[in-house]
Automatic annotation (TrEMBL):
Residues 8-163 form the S-Me-THD N-terminal domain. This is DUF917 domain-containing protein. It comes from the Bacteria. Residues 166-352 form the S-Me-THD-like C-terminal domain. InterPro entries: S-Me-THD-like_C (IPR048350), S-Me-THD_C_sf (IPR024071), S-Me-THD_N (IPR010318), S-Me-THD_N_sf (IPR027479).
Length: 358
């Protein structure tokens, strides 16, 4: 077991926003929520999937909805804990561990709130290795693990449990409920045993988030390029450097949707990159040609500081570096591409893979 305390939260939130590929919620809000919980309850113990007993009762928890809304509608610690306890009560079992369902600035820190409040260990891993906009888009789905029963809780005290015929129906019904709840809610879902977590999770995600956050901070202190530090850690590449000259963003059907246009500078001068997003960045097009697509990671960083920039905070005039990095290889299976490939999101193109080191 490893303990994560207050001194780790800033790095955790920053690194989680890197892996979140523009989605997963505002890292500053995520940091505040986790720090408040750790001050009240002390450090949280984390365990690797390999350390879980086969019969462990693992309940992931996170935020569902549009990140643009959560900036103004912040959940309470009680709301997070209630989602876990409501699902455990419905299942008739006691939770032994909490888990993170996706990497993201909020969704990697909200599980710390639940773990601290409930006094439970947290699994060092997540269900994606990045962030995706819909709740069926997780590696456990590829492993045949059901999303439901799942709990859903809003800030007013409304709560419910959904039990659906498959994971796509869980997304459809939970999304409708989330919209009625004000476009953001806390959910607990994909209840798993320890054996199922080992099969269906990306291991080590939280440790990677902390390492990424510290890499950025260390590079800045040592007057090195923080963007290069991220590229090196993720085995990725810089595909564009420039200035945001246009941003079209809207909140629709419970998502933050839109496009961003980045005019190239320096090595990218004379070219334009367009990013297309639905909570997360899904497509990167250089002068009309796709150069990277989901399920690989498309990440926007502040060019000077290396700070990750989420889709809801991207603004005209931002000087940015866009990097790409390979995803968990399971996403490039036939079933993975059917679940999260470009065509699922309405883009008529095959995945454009990020080069992977030999």
């Amino acid at each position: 077991m490893t303990k994560v305390g207050l001194d780790d939260v800033a790095a955790l939130a920053r690194g989680a926003a890197v892996l979140g590929t523009g989605g997963g919620g505002d890292p500053y809000i995520g940091r505040l929520l986790a720090e408040q919980a750790l001050r009240a309850h002390g450090p949280v113990e984390t365990v690797t999937p390999d350390e879980l007993p086969d019969d462990a009762s693992v309940l992931p928890v996170g935020m569902m909805g549009a990140p643009t809304v959560m900036v103004e509608k912040i959940p309470s610690a009680e709301q997070v804990g209630t989602a876990v306890t409501a699902l455990a009560r419905y299942l008739g079992r006691t939770a032994t561990h909490v888990a993170c369902i996706e990497a993201g600035g909020v969704n990697s820190t909200i599980p710390f709130v639940a773990a601290a409040q409930l006094g439970l260990p947290l699994v060092d891993g997540d269900g994606m290795g990045r962030a995706f906009p819909e709740l069926q888009m997780v590696l456990p789905t590829l492993s045949g693990i059901a999303a439901t029963p799942m709990s859903i809780v809003d800030e007013k005290g409304n709560r419910g449990v959904l039990h659906t015929v498959d994971n796509h129906w869980a997304e459809r019904l939970a999304r409708t409920a989330t919209i009625e709840m004000g476009c953001s809610a806390i959910v607990s879902l994909y209840a798993m045993t320890g054996a199922e977590v080992r099969q269906g999770f990306a291991a080590g995600t939280l440790g990677l988030c902390i390492a990424l956050g510290r890499d950025i901070d260390r590079a800045r202190r040592e007057h090195r390029d923080p963007v290069t530090a991220v590229v090196d850690r993720l085995r990725g590449q810089v595909v564009h450097t420039g200035k945001v000259v246009d941003i079209a963003r809207r909140t629709a059907t419970g998502f933050a949707r839109g496009d961003a246009t980045i005019e190239g500078v320096d090595a990218s001068a004379g070219t334009r990159l367009v990013l297309r997003f639905q909570n997360e960045h899904l497509i990167a097009e250089r002068d009309g040609t796709p150069i990277a697509t989901t399920p690989d990671l498309i990440i926007v960083l502040d060019r000077e500081t290396g700070e990750p920039i989420t889709t809801e905070s991207l603004r005209y005039g931002h000087r940015v570096s866009v990097i790409t990095a390979p995803c968990d290889e399971r996403w490039h299976s036939e079933a993975g591409i059917a679940l999260v490939g470009p065509r699922y999101f309405g883009y008529d193109l095959d995945p454009v893979r990020v080069p992977r080191e030999a």
